[in-house]
Design goal:
By secondary structure, the chain is mainly α. It has helices at about 5-15, 15-30, 45-55, 65-75, 80-99.
């Protein structure tokens, strides 16, 4: 959306030039008054941070599981149902949206 000079001037007239100028200067005024910025992290964010940290610390390759699966595939005893595949796909999509 483009705003023309006349539209801007009419907006300034409605809100008053002084108020518009004060809004621009307000961050400076806050610093002069000695106000400090604060940050609050929600419990949900803290939980997500802990989960992400646990994921980063986990080994990328679970060698024990990989070797078991290799043995089952070689022996021809490894089977996966359609429901299991669909469930894993849906689970992954949910996790991707949450993270």
């Amino acid at each position: 959306m483009m705003i023309s000079k006349t539209q801007l001037q009419s907006m300034l007239k409605v809100y008053g030039k002084e108020k518009a100028m004060n809004k621009v200067d307000s961050p400076q005024a806050g610093k002069a008054a000695g106000k400090l910025d604060q940050l609050a992290i929600s419990n949900e964010s803290k939980t997500k941070q802990k989960a992400m940290q646990a994921i980063r610390q986990a080994p990328e390759i679970r060698t024990e599981l990989v070797s078991q699966l290799q043995e089952r595939i070689s022996a021809g005893t490894y089977t996966v149902t359609d429901d299991e595949v669909a469930e894993k796909m849906i689970d992954r999509a949910i996790v991707d949206r949450l993270v």
